[in-house]
# Entry
Amino acid sequence: MNIDIDGTDFNDEINTADLQKIYPSATGFEVNGLKGDDVLTSSFIGRNGVDGIIGGEGDDLMSIFPSFLSPIPITNYAIFFGGFGSDMVYLPSGSHSVSGFSINTNDYIEFKIFSSNGELTQVSVSPTTEGIQIGELRYLTEDIINGRIRSVGWDEYFFRADGNNADWLVKGLDTYSQYHSLAPQPGTQVNRLYNSLEGRHLFSSNETEIDILTGNGWKNEGVIYYAPKESTAEVFRFYIPTENRHFYTALESERDMIISNQNAFSGWEYEGAAFSAFTTDDFPPEAVAVVRYLSQDTGSHLYSTSTNEQNILNQNSNWVNEGIAWYGDSMTATTDLV
# Structure
């Protein structure tokens, strides 16, 4: 027996584990959040069945808790439909394994969850849902549908799945091309942003991206330099999904070495040229030096234009000064961030 449950026009929290206590004979539930920013969870504990989760209107978080203590045969089905707004399906980390993604004949994205005792949960996600997060890894349904199986960082996720870029399928958007063609035009200011929760920095010249990030806990530390009108280099960007951080280099040789050596740099995703700049041997006298530091604790890098910040880092034994990575156009840039 399946039970239909509707939410309200406000923010709802509905978990099928709670519904199971109310309807113990039910094998499945169809939950419709209707309006509001809802938290909707499909949870299979001690039952086999089929759950359908519909976000409706609003920015909805739809979670899946895989089969646990289910009777034999142990197979459950969870189907997610996003609706309008920025929606995500979330599978927390746990003692289960997850298959790769596939696309069925209805253009739903499918994957399987194998629980520790042999239980199986089959998951189907409509591309009306913007994202799928499995543990710490985030994927965009637009990428998966278009054959790009790649995890993304929060910065790319928010830019491509939030605000006006939500509902990519209905609107016919190509947010991948939008995001990956963000290199600034000559004279465009380049800002440095900081996420204190994750302890990492990001460079951006895109006002939309900056607005999204600062609205989600990032601090805009100001303009670090301007993209030169007559540049002599490009700054290339990589994303490391396992560490949720970016790496920048202005050396084509270093870029090519990372791309060609995937044994040493497994999972590093090349995102292309991010900014224009000056090389370390061809720059005007007033150019702003960008100094690269390596954290010996984490293996991450920090890029600094601030002499005050550099003095602090130079006195910290954890940080290794790797020298000037590239130069930017000074114009009226703010170079004392600390």
Summary: The chain has a mean pLDDT of 89.
